[in-house]
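hiii, so i know i said id send this last week but things got crazy w the move. better late than never?? heres the sequnce for the chain we talked about at the cafe, plus the structure i predicted for it. fair warning i was half asleep when i ran it
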Amino acid sequence: MLSKKWKTTLLLASGMAMSTQISTADEENQTWIDALKDMGEVYTGDDDSIVQEVKVFGRAHYQWSYSDGNSAGQDFSGNGDELRRLRGGASVEFTNGISALARMNLEKGGFRNTSLGYSSFDELYLDYSFSDALGFDSATIGYGRYKVLFGGSEHQSSKRIKTIERSNINNRFAGIRPTGVLFNGEKDGKSYSTGVFSTVQDLETLAKWKGGAAFYSSMEFEALSGGVILDFIYNNDSARQQSDFNLKWATSATYNRSFENILFFAGASYGETESGSVFGIVLLPSTFIIEDKLELVGRYQFGYSSEDSSVPRSSGSRGIRRVARNEGVDTGAGDQNHTFYLGLNYFLQGDNSKIMTGVEYEAISGDVGRDLDGYTFWTAYRFYF
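okay and structure toks below
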């Protein structure tokens, strides 16, 4: 009998092979990309129906990495695979305004473990939509477990991110899913969001309300021939119980613009803790070498903390930190973090099915005797519908 790891690998490999095979076949009627986009549409009704739409959706992200580096004066190297994301869910729109969404995380293993099973809800909420009210062209208000979009990288879904992992800066300021009330509105081409969230940590479903609250706001608009995103979070809970809100306050600014065939992303985030501050910038240019098929991506990030051991962290301690720890090596510390990434993305069927590769160099300095630096090679397959 196949182990869970091999079942997972076989499933993802089959998806890659099927995507490649169909993408080279004649496309007389409906392309594979159209089929992927439509396959989750279970039901569509008219405005007079009680239920207007039912959708199901899912994504599978598998990756492997090899790291080689030096941490706290010790050399290390190692590799491992991971079922990075396996999510499934459904949404229902009914009574011409109410929608419910539930999306579950179905991976349980982590690094060097591809075990399957329910682990938590990624999102779980109920929204009400309306138009031409409160001065907005359209708006929604809802309650539940949300993904808080703080920082430009987090505003981009993991289905479409250009690097295998988001930046360390992003992962220092964003992470788990809080419970609260969220309002989104649009007016004259500008988008606005504001929310109030519980600071109590719940890793699976909806959190309780006790202690303090965190206040969130965001705005998206066009300026300087590109797109601008401004985010802000204030946390009045001195216990800092939730990792999303372990700062007293934080703000972020993001700028996106196209320069002919180059897409440029720049982001900066700043936050204050009880004892110091954290700051970081991310620069990410990308361009297609082969139109819609092969994309070249670069990224530079700089992170700084006023505390010697509080530099922005790798996503879930992935990359060189995780390999070092698995090899029994201290993961190092410091107050400055430099990271360089260069990658290629090959689109089998758009973002719905793609292969990603990348090489990343990361260095942490500032804490004498505990510096860290090294390289990580990544390869990944991403699929969603």
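btw Confidence is low (pLDDT under 50) at residues 4-29. thought thatd interest u
miss u guys!!
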